[in-house]
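User: Hey, quick favor. My workstation is busy. Could you predict this chain's structure for me?
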Amino acid sequence: QLAIDSPEQGWYALLEMFPGAAFLIGLATLSGLLFYLTSANSGAMVMANFSSSIPNPADDGAKWLRIFWALVTALLTIAMLIAG
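Assistant: No problem, here it is.
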């Protein structure tokens, strides 16, 4: 019932049923964070490549542009989390 009412808490409630719950919860949170950061990094690189003129297709967009898109993505993510 908890997972239906509050899905974000259901995952952690499930992990609390196993031995070593603190370790499992920490590992699950860390792996989720790593998946998010990897995807955000790839997305920032793609957006930097799309928004710049690159003469050689083997090159990537400028690093400052990649950082810009990473910050924009992070700010939008935070805004959506705050908005609910």
